[in-house]
Amino acid sequence: MSKQPLNFLCVSTYFKGEDFLKSVKAEGHNIYLLTKKKLDKEPWPWESIDDTFYIEEWNQNDVAKGIAYKFRTIKFDRFVALDDFDVEKVALLREHFRMPGMGRTTAHYFRDKLAMRMKALEEGVNVPEFTDLFNNDTINAYADRVSPPWLIKPRMEASATGIKKIHSKDELWHVVNELGDERDNYLVEKFAPGDVYHVDGLNVDGKVVFARVSKYLDTPFEVAHGGGIFRSASSKIGSKVEKGLQKMNASVMKAFGMQFGASHTEFIQSKATGELFFLETSSRVGGANLAEMVEAASGVNLWGEWARIEASNLRKEKYKLPKINNKYAGIVVSLSRFEHPDTSSFTDEEIVWKMHKAWHIGLIVVSDSSERVLELLDHYTERIGKEFHASLPAPDKSE
């Protein structure tokens, strides 16, 4: 007897998650996509999508009413947020329709940087010293106790968007006053120079079943604010820092109540002390083509496996990881001064992926040697810098 297909409502107000949609369809389920009308010309995997619902802008009540209307004839089994900015909105929808999955409280830990830090601190996970911006005396006490530089961060933005570096108490108050009535949506934390790592993982039944540690060779903050070239590479498997971050990532997932799905978590290793600190996490696959880099190194497609985990969970079936490779991969991506840069002169056999996006250039390499990956990335970065690179100022906030 064949199993009844499940109905997935996938929400994405940005163009992403194509592999998730393809994988759900490949598993024999139905896909309903809720996205913005302006994204209707994007190359979604239309052959995998059973129906698409468009909105102009997100209005929580209108979206809930629209889904309720569709629910009359389609029995949705799962709501999935494919982008960081949709996590909390979809958590509210789950609570309204009593859907399984992450509710608003848990979703907050994966979206709100202040909630993340407070929960991590409460659970004994190392975080940079921080404070909210609610109370004037608290801000003064923090500025007197913790030496600058500091970072002011929006609580709800993704990546390095909206982050400002602050060098003095006067400058801090200038920025806080400029924020006016928006200051409660920000926090300030100690800026500690160091290496920034990301752990990209999969979680099943409250446990981390797969995680790969990588290091940003140029941090997203540096790239966004300095117009640099984005690079990341797999960390040496079994090294002290890799083992430390695997353990720390598992602690964060447990503390935040992650039950199943994909996660992308960032940490920093202090240059001064070597100490590891938790920075932030998200209940999604990492952006900037990091999923392609992780797949090149490990053979694990994070989007596809996340889809399989969701389906297995709904079916109450045991999820089984695919075979894992222990190779090393690295990525380099830059804005290009050419609309369609010619990358035919990049011919090394280690290249497994080239970016096809207007005004961008990007490559992923894979090797059995982490040293070889780093050597290639250094070489390509120098070439891209001379022959292709262009830069734009960082956005103040998301669109």
From TrEMBL:
Keywords carried by this UniProt record: ATP-binding, Ligase, Nucleotide-binding
Molecular function as annotated in GO: ATP binding; ligase activity; metal ion binding
Annotated ranges, domain ATP-grasp: 117-311
Top-rank taxon: Bacteria
Listed Pfam families: ATP-grasp_4
Protein name: ATP-grasp domain-containing protein
